[in-house]
Design a protein that fits this description.
heterodimer; A: alpha/beta; TIM Barrel; 8-stranded parallel beta barrel; 9 helices; 12 strands; 43% helix; 19% strand; B: mainly alpha; Outer Surface Protein A, domain 3; two-stranded antiparallel ribbon; elongated
Chain lengths: 284, 274
């Protein structure tokens, strides 16, 4: 989508790396920040964000918009997000296909929705409202999930495709989340990729997860595993050169190690794109 | 669960109720007079994990995510009460004070007040003050910025113009009333929990940010008396007048300039006050 240019390969900006990023100016294409971490009046977080923004493209990734909740949209949150966006001028703003609050209380988690017409109509109307308030299109991310609802009448990818169409939003495809959910619910992750409209994907997330035998957990606490790298190759083959980000939150290693992971993604993307080009030439 | 499938609103209300049940989803179902079969009307289970077990994954993540944040927010309180009691405290706290803010930063904001009436405070009534100190340091850490008045700024003021200098505290400060001298417990750090309990000692604690660090200290009698004026902003000449009314034993001008110097050295005055 033209609203979401290819920024290259980025990483999440995390507090443990603030000093290294500000002082060393690492060679990285762009940073993603967790919006809520910077929705504060002032102090070091805002200062670091201003500094980083002067030197790198930044995108804002939210975890608390609770787009799928049946509570009213938190307009205070939206106002604060708009203020931060006006100051930061991010390349785009993203959040999740999930709900996290009900009855005025919040769970600080990304809880899954049933894939029903009711949820689709509810979610798409709220995304349209938020896009109207923020005066920009959003990228909406698929979450890792550990349960599904008997109510669902469509697959997750059918739901996402319909959502993108109805809300006229972009999709942030989290390849690790696809891998985790595919394992937890027994679907083919490549069917997921094949069901997503190519022109809606504006960003890709990659991350590590933990294996608990009966289920996988989206923990962001380790390197990307081979299975997710392989799925990323398939994603690049289908969606082309899309901005790609490494998420690493717990057991956070050095900044250099996270950048190394990002470079691996860049190399892999370049390899797949070159292969695709060769194939096209041969076919021609 | 009702026999028919629920609306989105009903699903979310039930999900939240069970995920936040204090002893897990299975006991939460019992408390609501439901069975795992009722849950299976809405949530899929399979041979690997039942619907209850799947929902329990979310219950664990809910509790431990917030516990982790509160452990980071209150390291000294946790060290004093121990990991087990801290875990129990957070369990009780989340039942009484369910998170309502979009930001995890605020999940523990009501813990000091809650702790004041918790059973842990029966024999250690100073715990709430310690928690309040840890909390206010968080609040000040990312409070609004001010341009801070510096010593060179003061040096540029003509001697005759000091009386008109408008002095006002920076935005990134707060105060609270402590009943006990908990500052030494804080200074010991989370690794040193041994030592006598703090003595009863009612006083006002000032917490402020001198970028990027956060500091705290008790206000002395003079600062306590002048604090309301300094908070809203006041001409330095009026500060001198107030000091003269309180302290006739010393040279008022000298005392007032020492007072001003200390505030400036601590980075407590805003430049907008000039």
């Amino acid at each position: 989508m033209r609203d979401f240019p290819n920024l290259g390969h980025g990483i999440g900006l995390r507090p443990a790396h603030y000093r290294s990023v500000v002082e060393d100016r690492p060679a990285i294409d762009w940073f993603e920040v967790i919006s809520e971490n910077f929705m504060v009046p002032g102090g070091n977080p805002r200062r670091v964000l201003r500094d980083v923004r002067e030197r790198y493209p930044v995108v804002m990734h939210g975890v608390s918009m609770s787009l799928g909740s049946t509570d009213p949209i938190d307009e205070t949150y939206l106002d604060a997000l708009a203020v931060l966006a006006a100051e930061t001028e991010p390349a785009w703003i993203s959040d999740h296909v999930c709900w996290s609050s009900i009855g005025g209380h919040t769970g600080h988690d990304l809880w899954p929705l049933p894939y029903t017409e009711e949820a689709l109509a509810h979610l798409s109307s709220r995304i349209l409202h938020v896009q109207d308030c923020l005066k920009r299109r959003l990228l909406i991310e698929n979450v890792s999930s550990y349960l599904t609802y008997t109510h669902s009448t469509m697959s997750e990818w059918e739901f996402l495709s319909a959502l993108a169409e109805r809300a006229d939003c972009g999709l942030l495809l989290d390849v690790n989340n696809i891998f985790v959910s595919a394992h937890n619910h027994g679907f083919d992750p490549r069917s997921f990729l094949a069901g997503i409209p190519i022109d809606r994907v504006g960003q890709i997330h990659l991350a590590g997860h933990s294996d608990h035998g009966a289920h996988l957990l989206d923990t962001h606490d380790r390197p990307v595993c081979d299975g997710v790298w392989s799925l990323y190759e398939s994603a690049v083959a289908r969606f082309g050169a899309v901005s790609t980000l490494i998420e690493w939150d717990d057991n956070l290693p050095s900044l250099e190690r996270v950048i190394e992971e990002s470079r691996r993604a860049a190399d892999l993307q370049a390899e797949v794109l070159a292969q695709t080009e060769r194939s096209v030439r041969h076919a021609g | 669960m009702p026999a028919e499938r629920s609306s989105l609103r009903d699903i979310q209300a039930r999900f939240y109720s069970l995920v936040t049940a204090p002893q897990g989803v299975a006991l939460g179902l019992v408390e609501e007079g439901l069975t795992s079969k009722d849950l299976a009307i809405d949530i899929c289970g399979d041979e690997r994990l039942s619907a209850t077990e799947r929902l329990d994954l979310y219950a664990n993540m809910y509790f431990f995510r917030i516990l982790d944040v509160l452990r980071d927010d209150y390291p000294r309180l946790r060290a004093v009460v121990g990991d087990g009691e801290f875990h129990n405290l957070v369990t009780d706290y989340l039942l009484a004070c369910r998170p309502a803010s979009f930001s995890l930063r605020n999940a523990g904001s009501r813990l000091p007040g809650f702790l004041a009436s918790h059973r842990l405070s029966v024999h250690q009534s100073w715990l709430s003050d310690l928690a309040q100190l840890e909390r206010q340091r968080i609040e000040v850490f990312d409070a609004a910025d001010s341009e801070v008045l510096s010593v060179p700024d003061l040096q540029r003021i003509a001697p005759g113009a000091f009386a008109d200098l408008h002095v006002q505290l920076i935005a990134a400060h707060t105060t609270f009333e402590a009943g006990y001298a908990v500052e030494p417990v804080w200074s010991n750090g989370p690794g040193e929990v041994e030592g006598p309990s703090p003595a009863a000692d009612p006083h006002t604690v000032l917490v402020w940010r001198q970028d990027p660090l956060v500091y705290h200290r008790r206000l002395d009698a003079l600062e306590t008396a002048l604090y309301p004026s300094l908070r809203r902003g006041v001409a330095f000449g009026l500060v001198c007048e107030q000091i003269s009314q309180m302290r006739s034993d010393r040279d008022v001008a000298q005392l007032a300039f020492e007072f001003l110097g200390r505030l400036v050295n601590d980075g407590l005055l805003a430049v907008a006050s000039m």
